Amino acid sequence: MIKKRDKTLKDILDLILYDNPSTQEEIAEKLGITRRYVTELLKPLVEDETVKKAYVIDLKSYEKVVESFGQDVSSKNMAGNVLINDMINNMALHVQNQLEASFLSIVENDPVKAEEALKMDFDTNNMFDKIRTSVETIITINQTPSFSKSVIFNEVAYDLERIGDYCGHIAKFTINDTYEIDEDILKNIKKLYKSSKKMIQLSVDSFLTGKIELKGDVMDLEENLHSIQNKSMNIIALQMTESSFDDVERSNYFIYLSRVIKAFERIGDICVEIIDLSGEFHKNMPRSNTPRSFRERIT
Length: 299
Prior knowledge:
Elements: H1 4-19, H2 24-31, H3 35-47, E1 51-52, E2 56-57, H4 59-67, H5 79-107, H6 111-141, H7 147-176, H8 183-209, H9 215-241, H10 248-283, H11 292-298
Antiparallel strand pairs: 1-2
């Protein structure tokens, strides 16, 4: 059973975490205790920087403090998070279907499928909003989960929404351009689609199940994706040199086709971001603050 002193400290920390009080007087008033008692309980946490000035909590330290009271604060065990897991799984499946529709619109030169893919993006955006709202609601209702981990659900949903945006870039190519794609490029697009779709499956599976070891497979697929992307861009560059610079329509075609290739590459990069979120969520593995594209240029 949690001690009364520990419960009061937990109430103080939760008040700081969720209500953003500005002074110790405000904390004392809301909890019905003396300011002197608030100061006494917070003093060791201020000294070790678990609680910082202006009353900001180091969330990882917060977890350790609360766990020392014998309370489980793991967001992974929340009943509400089970629901959000299902929502993310459904969103991932939807985005994969959106990617497939965008891909088929190019392979089959089918504007109808392209329009279908663009309409699916509205559902993708709505799914993101629903997950974001659900996470905020759970955090408001349940005061025990780790806020630092719960918000990662929003980041994964946002990443899936970004993948949906890139699916839209692919679909718009079919609607806006009339030139037939070179067969070598088309073969590479098929490979890019296969790799990027698999990366979505693996990265989301890793996040939902905690299978961190899937990162190796994702990184292998990403390396393959970049290799295909480079080959495709070289083919496009060669075709551009063989075309007349006066043919503006043809030049625009090559620009938009390059964006399609880059869209698949960006989908792969986002999948790596998701699997990095998996490592942070399940194993507390910190992500680098350096943007991925910049890290690749300096390594």
